[in-house]
Amino acid sequence: MQHGHLPLANLKRSSVYVWNLMIRNSANNGFFTHSLNTYSLMLRSGLHGNNFTFPLLFKACASLNSIWDGKILHSHVLHLGFQAHPFVQTALIDMYSKCSRLSSSIKVFDEMHTSIRTSVSWNSMLSAYCRASFINQAILLLKQMWILGLELTASTFLGIVSGCTLKQGLSMHCFVLKLGLINSETPLANSVMSMYAKYGCVKEARLIFDEMDDDTCSIISWTTIIGGYVNIGNVAEAFAMFNQMRRQRGVTPDFVVFVNLISGCIHTGNLLLAASVHSLLLKSGCNDENPIDNLLISMYAKCGDLESARRVFDMVHAKGVFLWTSMIAGYTQSGYPTEAFDLFKRLLRTSIRPNEATLATILSACADLGSLGMGKEIEEYILLQGLGCNRQVQTSLIHMFSKCGSIERAKEVFDTVTNKDLAVWSAMIYGYAIHGMGHEALSLFRKMQHVPDAVVYTSVLLACSHSGLVEDGLMYFESMKNEVGIEPSLEHYTCLVDILGRAGCFDLALRTINGMPVQVQPKVWAPLLSACRKHRNIELGEFAATKMLTLNPQSSGNYVSMANLYTSDGKWKEAAKARRLMNDKGLVKEPGWSQVEIDGSMHVFVAGDRSVDIYNKLDELNVKLLDAETLSFENHLHL
């Protein structure tokens, strides 16, 4: 119905009731601007709104986030004397809240006479506090409602539960159980489940889920519990729940379910599972959603199948910047920086402009390549696009310059960053660490104003390792555990063993390894073995190598490390025996390689490469060397 096109003469003859019908029709169908325009026509016809008109108009203002129109309408309400009507005032509270004007919502609520405050008014004020993340104030308001004997419904608790801390959420769960709401109200049950899942308490969420009847269990219920299992890393149980859901009548997997399943595949890196999810996605018809293509590319890349990731990319006709970024990131994170850079150059030939995430990703590829020339080209592009002050880009520039050997340029970028966040500090500390500038790294760490996270501590320990700062390394490791409360990860333990091993503190290194959690021990013997080779501690090196081979007998690198240990001490027979063991198991050592950048192009050389061009060039050089030797010999004879 295009009421806005009716002649004004006909509209003038309409009653307030008809105007309200037109405004309601527009608002209910999402034509909020049309609702406000219709009200303007109503005023021009000589009529004004009533207590049914203004709630509809405030709903339109809230949906359009138009605080300007909302304030004008509020003045109309005051002028016409509808400010004491509960429906109007409740709509005002909701409008101000949704337009991020909590103080105005509070003012309207406080000015309402207690005799006209309904449960809906109280619930609206509760929602206003929750929307602004003032959960403690919302809980105080809930207590007032309880004391006043007002009816508490499922909608009363929905906003509070979603924003609760775990402790508050437990209290709210007990409250709604006593009121008998959770078993009869599916949205509330879903909200409580979501709260538990958010804090990793999937067991508690599952108890609620299992109490729900098949008739009340919605697709949101299934999505919540599946997503909860994915978030805690229990992907097997997430897929078990998904299979159970598929057997449920009337429940069809939606877009959110597939997002959770794809996230699970990314977590596990299981290619067979990923292909199965992709197949089900195609059958469901949910593959038309834009973000799904980005996730599919990330999923296949994480599963090591870049060909499938590229097929997904190539099949999308209208590629957005996020799709390009996902594919570039797939190549970068999988160790194919050259392919990432080639795709980035292809992107620049399109009408799509890279965003901050794209540039950060390609700078990471430059860092992996060690290509300072390419990195500088990207920096020039960044400056031309006016993105040089973006913190994400600046952080990536610091990382790139550090990895490409230009620590001075990294420091220059660091010094230009205003309002440095934790990532910026971390990147610079890491840069100093890999350059063996331990004292500079620790000095910067002490100047940092932010609370350090696990990544920062990894860089600090790495700096101590590369600079032989044993006492500092031990101090910061203990500080991380006991003062900051960060549980050491594999990276932290590896750095600690490396610190002790490089300094020759083998007894302490052994005690440290034996005191570590069992699950991280297989990985920390490698730095100890490397230290034994450096210090020619063959006996302990053999012990470390034996541990490595026992825990991971299928790693060719372990046999090579053992052979190198013997070689460093001139024990050629033992070295040959270690390599024979590797060959007997059918393991192949990954060939060594090197690369050089010439005129902006990277040239890679692999050990054992039988390239005809390489050997022709070597033959040519040998001929020139022989000619030079012959000429030198003849000149010597003449003398």
TrEMBL record:
Cited Pfam families: E_motif (PF20431), PPR (PF01535), PPR_2 (PF13041)
Molecular function via GO: RNA binding
UniProt keyword annotations, A-Z: Repeat
Coiled coil start-end: none
Domain of life (superkingdom): Eukaryota
Record has Repeat as a keyword: yes
Protein name, entry field: DYW domain-containing protein
